[in-house]
Amino acid sequence: MAGARPETRPVSPHLSVWRWHVTMLSSILHRVTGMGLYGAAILFAVWLMAAAAGPETYAPVQWFLTTPIGGLMLYLIVAALAYHLANGIRHLVFDTGSGLAPSDADTSAWFAILFAIAAPIGLWALVTFGA
Amino acid sequence: MSAPERSMRTALGRVRHHGAGGEGTGHFIATRITSIALAILAPWFAVSAALAIRDASYISAIDYLSNPFNAVGVILLVAVGLYHMSIGMQEVILDYIGRPITKIVLLILNALVPFALGAGAIFAVLLVNFGV
Predict the structure, then answer these.
(1) Residue-wise pLDDT tens digits, B55-75
(2) What is the Cα–Cα distance from A53 to B48, expressed in whole angstroms?
(3) Which pTM was predicted?
């Protein structure tokens, strides 16, 4: 029970003593990107409400989105979304009992990370050079 | 005395009502079902909005949201996305926040804020389409 003697015994997940491995990173990134996307969803709702409120209210939103900071923010949101999507599909596969062998889990974790790097670059290229 | 219950919980644990809330399976399933919907809705929105609203301008945003297909897709994305993220955040709060007062305040906020955002965002899409 909490409060008995919690201070001295080791507390999971022992981040300071664990050997680093990619499946650990993939799990942490899933939570971190999930939290980031929580913030992104709040901004998404604000963007919709600003658009509905009219051009005067929307003007500062457009200004922010076209600044370098706003662009970087959108870039990071797409990266977080891509990671959470790829790793979420990975977890749906895990739920069926497949892909849990350490070598398979490592490979799919790296795939999710690479997808998170590639997807925002791909979307940026599509918007900049695409039709 | 009746026959002892076949249970792994101690008598003290039962009295204190500490233990599983009984809703874990529902949340587990809801997270997976919503994730399948979001695996379609979120990439669709990211790509279609990025292509349609390149300059982030008011006109292009309104044009995008005025398309009925886009409007329905955005409303679904808002509703399903906020539900999914609320379940996820609840799990994170329960994992990391130990202080009861902080935990309860955050859990209540996490239950209410997505409702407020969802009502505002969905009303906004409707207003763009049906407003004066």
Answers:
(1) 899 999 999 999 999 999 999
(2) 22
(3) 0.87
CB A49 to CB B98 under 8 A? no
Quote the minimal CA–CA distance from B3 to chain A in Å. Answer: 28
Domain ranges in chain A are 22-129
Q: Which of B53, B60, B43, B78 is nearest to A120 (CA)?
A: B43
CATH top-level class of A22-129: mainly alpha
pLDDT (tens digit per residue) in A32-90: 999 999 999 999 999 999 999 999 999 999 999 999 999 999 999 999 999 999 999 99
DSSP B37: H
CATH class of B24-130: mainly alpha
**Distances in whole angstroms, Cα of residue A126 to Cα of each of A2, A115, A129, A131, B48:** 53, 16, 6, 8, 11
- Restricting to B residues 8-67, those with a Cβ less than 8 Å away from any Cβ of A are 18, 32, 35-36, 38-39, 42-43, 46-47, 50-51, 54-58, 61-62, 65
Boundaries of every domain in chain B: 24-130
